[in-house]
Structures
1.
Amino acid sequence: MTPKATILTADEVRRALTRIAHEIIERNKGAENLALIGVHTRGIPLARRLAEKLSTLEGVDVPTGMLDITLYRDDLSEVAQQPIIRETQVPFDLRDRRVILVDDVLYTGRTVRAALDALIDLGRPAGIQLAVLVDRGHRELPIRADYVGKNLPTAATEVVKVKLQETDDVDSVELWDMEALR
Amino acid sequence: MGARPPHLLDFQDWTPERLGAILDNADTMLQVLDRPVKKVPALQGLTVCNAFFENSTRTRTSFELAARRMSADVLTFAAGASSVSKGESLRDTLEVLTSYKVDAYIVRHHAAGAAHLVARYSGKPVINAGDGRRAHPTQALLDAYTIRQEYGSLEGKKIAILGDVRHSRVARSNAELLPKLGAQVVLCGPATLLPPGLARMPGVTLTTDPREAVRGAHAVMALRLQRERMSGGFLGSLQEYADTYQVNDTLLKEAESGAIVLHPGPMNRDLEISSDAADGPQSRILKQVENGQAIRMSVLYHLLVGRN
């Protein structure tokens, strides 16, 4: 089985993250008082990579955390299988920090909505921004990303697969036909 | 992990993997309880009925808070203030409650098997919050969780449970659960309060010698002496019982160094447990109460989410 198209190669993923890091610095006038929080699963390594880039570019250690949104999903009463609860770890005070929420793919917006609820229950950040590697459209809620690695118009029958070294031993973004994956 | 049992009545149909998942998720629930907003929307829109046909303070409030922390609506039903006191049967009471569109039942009853009966007729998940002398599974889960918190695992741990084993649903549920998770259980008490049939349970041994029971134990649990059930001549005298079976600092010297002390509550201080042991550095009794809420949140999540 092969993907319909490779959207980003490893080099392109790296460049996209570098560009996002520059945009974060520009928009926030530096990297002071920022925090990066990755949404399980692939948002976490992406947040850590962005933190490394911010450290290299600005000499500032930006704290990172991980967020699981399972208990905040709006479809828990409808799901057929019980979702696995994973770890939430935000080992720093959110007050007065601008938090950048990081995820791999922005699709309907429901994951981001759940993540916003989960985050606000942890404390009261000064602001929340959203960074995603891929925005594939099809929003069901009025949510948009502040930083996007790649805008990718897709059909609802397509699947965007983000692979990262930390979780999949390779960096790439691929577009697949849902039928091919069945 | 095996199929998920529809109810938590006892541990018969529960695999160690499923029980492990409940304990794992309780870690997350404890984190929720430690946050500024101690609530998650996981059970929003669902109604949980707290059906208590027998008096209880800590179990009832713990379940009620657990359900509320998960954003469920809670209907609390206390038999003393209901038509049960006018002679209404359990089944008729249940039909009334069902018409209120309840999504799950938490049942405490003085009769063994009452929670099974509710499970048979309600068509909704049922959690046994204590039925007669038979079972109190969430108490056993919170005990297991408290021990696991201390040692990281129950594998190979020796747990001594001392006291009125005969009348204790907590002892029975622990004897069923802890060996499933890899621990060995020693039940100890006067011969009159130690039903020999319990020795047939896998991973369980019985003894009337408290020093033997506690020797090398990683956790020592004192059971409440149910004085209201002592009219059958089970004991010579309370003083004699306390002199022999009380969990105190002298007895604890036989246990592993740093062994933890547990009690399901409410305690008869200086009868089955000394104040020194109950309040000392080895005591995890208040920790058990805190863990109880997290375990019950986890059980509600496990039984109610992902059914449709």
Note: The longest helix of chain B spans residues 285-304.
2.
Amino acid sequence: MKEDVQVRIAGIAGDGSFITGEVLASLLKKIGYYVVTVKDFPSNIRGLPSNYTVRGSSKPVYGRNNYDDFLIAFDIPSIKTHLRDLKEGSVCIYDSRDGKELSDDLKKEGVFYVPLPLREIARKELGLELIKNMVASGVLSEIFGVDEEITDRVILENFKRKGEKVVELNKKAVLKGRELVRENHGRFPEFKLRKYNDPGRVLAMGNDFVSMGAIAGGCRFLAAYPITPSSEILEFLSKEMKKFGGAAIQAEDEISSINMAIGASIAGLRAMVASSGPGVALKTEGLSYAGMTETPLVIYYAMRVGPSTGLPTKTSQEDLLYIIFAGHGEFPRLILMPATPDELFYLTAEAFNFAEEFQIPVIILTDQFLAQNKFTIDKEKIDPKKVEIRRGKLVLNGNDIPRNNGFLLRYKIEEDGISPRIIPGIKEGVFGTTGYEHDEAGYGTEDEDNRVSMVKKRMSKIKHLIKRVPPPVLYEKKNAKIGIISAGSTFGPIMETMERLEKDGISVSFLRIVTLWPFPEDEVRKFVEDKEKIFIVEQNYKGQLRFLVENAIIDIHKNKIRGITKFSGRPFKPLDIEEKIREELK
Amino acid sequence: MSEILSEVKVRTPKDYEGYKKPTWCPGCGDFSILSSLKKVAAEIGLDPVKTVVVSGIGCSGKSYAFFYANGVHTLHGRVLPVATGIKLGNPELFVIGLSGDGDALAIGGNHFIHTARRNVNIKLIIMNNQIYGLTKGQFSPTSNHGFVTVSSPYGSVEFPVDPVILALASGASFVARAFSGEPNSLTEIIKEAFLHKGFSVIDVLSPCVTYNKVNTYDWFRENIEFLPNGHDKENLTEAFTYATSFKGKIPIGIFYKKERPTYEELILDSSNPCREDLYCGRERVYELIETFSK
Ligand SMILES: Cc1ncc(C[n+]2csc(CCOP(=O)(O)OP(=O)(O)O)c2C)c(N)n1
Ligand code: SF4
């Protein structure tokens, strides 16, 4: 009985790898497995190579494993591409369309090769070549020992909206796949999965968790311009926001979207924008305006590979330093980096509290891997009732605030740096807001003393903010002399690396940064001081997190630091990290 | 309309005096726009507390401080998206946008088209002086071909955009042009725009006495012509005809006015009370979570 299985489905875009992967993910969830998916798709609709990996495990998993147990290849070139991820005991099922023997360079020792006439069956027996992918799903269902009743249910859920005929055809295709396995008994290795009771876990994309967190957190306005990998936020909220009395808008561009959100926030709504590198670049003028006008704003930033248009559908952590410094001038900001489904949910909800309480822009920083892949989580781990709503110093009656010349002191200087927040249309009184330096009533002035006290007022929020933000999470192993520091989506592979090393008696502790900015200098310094060697794991070339760590620690500790970076656009595998650490320890 | 009227007192233009006294050059066309604005506000009893003046960057943009209402001074070109956000954030607010010609049509050109298309209920006044004032006299998108400025020393090779034609083509539901030197008609037009429900654009020819030595008050007096009284304002074809050629002069008046549903009416579900109570609708979040755990 297997407790951890990883399947990769590969072909060219249009082959249906995507839907096969989605169906498989649902199947695994329904037999009680924790699931994670890794979409690897080109920025193109048809014709280029693409693949979809699904991993199921009896334990929670947040990343892919080192090797695939199964490769379903719809074409021969896909075998070549993914051969390095097969190992002894892996199974490679490929479409035997050409009937030719596989060339030697595609054969790896210990791998079972099973040619199946997937296309042919689909065309001849089902009348639709495209449905070969469902034949493949049938093959896997049979090998894994998934009940027919469960596959039928998943197919119904996935194809219901396309009509009864489509559902029936898909069911038939799955059956064909099952028959293929039964007929060819003996050609497949034993690979029955243990069947658990389905606890009804949530299986959703990172962007879905963020969207749900936003709504639970009281977000009632989104303006966005579609960009991979954040578009699903716009799609999700366009459907749902109206039902909550708010609006989700597809703006004409990113500049408009951030300014609309600023407007909505000035008017009193919890507002958000969602974007990625090129889009956030356009938004920086607005970001700086939000900083100066102290307008609460949540920016969801899903990083992809750059520079420029880079690899739009691939993952990276290349924009850490960029978003810390993006925008002209100095102003406080908060950057949160969730790593798990529950963090995606709660930190998004919480972002709105921080934004309103401190009257600052708050950035939720994720990446393509987290944003667009699916993860499972136990339902009770994301509970909307646990989301608090704290609106900070929102004032609803102008009579409660001092005035100057009849104008309310929206930017009144307070010790904690946080002024009363007034929204237009409240009882009594008006106020001004401007991106120019301004006085307490919100009107432009170039007075030198005023400038100094306004800068101090805004910046003094930071020292109060630091005390409130989520601290790094420490995964401590006893007597560990080695430490890992990282943030965001590298979480899954790091946790697995630690487990593997521990089996060999190497204990490693892990400090996961949740608040990227203000950078948790004290916690990081303490962690580094404690260890003999520190590995900083991140998905960029330069070592941007490393730069931040080195900036925080005392110089004498710098020689302890090693960087483990990956910038291919694909997420880390545990092995990527494990090998580097072992090498270093030799 | 009722939401913008003050319940309390009869108002006078003086009641709309802003936080600061205007800092424009003496003789600047923008003075007249401001005083018409105050007159209209007094006439219709505009409630300052429920009004937001959104302005951009430029000499024109300073006006948010010269008028008694909530003032949001935005970035260069971003009047309309911010105003749209405010309107969606609270549709009960009366939102006035004040832009320069550079602000509205160069850097903000894209927003102009899309706000018109959406028909957001914003009143946009373009303080059009055919030049960049605040940055000291460069040509603007409404400057005439051949116009010599510091940044077009050989004469502008570009041809001007006509805000009226652009507004009509983009779907604005109220489109007018006025002239600063004709305060009576200017006031009337602003008033009608304010009473119209939907995106209202008024292109106001407003001489820059410091940098624009061509398009002066006298020049405009010779070159403008009022639209005839009997003009059918609901007829878009007629509006285009007047806007594109009118006795070889610059036509002044209301070109087009036709109500259609506003963006906020179409996009918001006003029956939902969630605006105040952010906890509201939580059960629905459970339902959403449920759909992912089937
Ligand atoms: C993003 C940005 N670009 C450029 C500027 C500089 N700038 C300030 S005002 C202005 C032009 C103003 O012209 P217009 O909008 O016609 O207004 P006017 O001053 O003539 O009333 C420019 C280019 C700026 N503030 N922001
Ligand atoms: S520079 Fe021109 S537009 Fe600016 S205030 Fe002076 S006259 Fe008016």
Note: Residues B 24-25, 28, 30, 59, 129, 133, 208-211 surround iron/sulfur cluster (ligand 2) (CB under 6 Å).
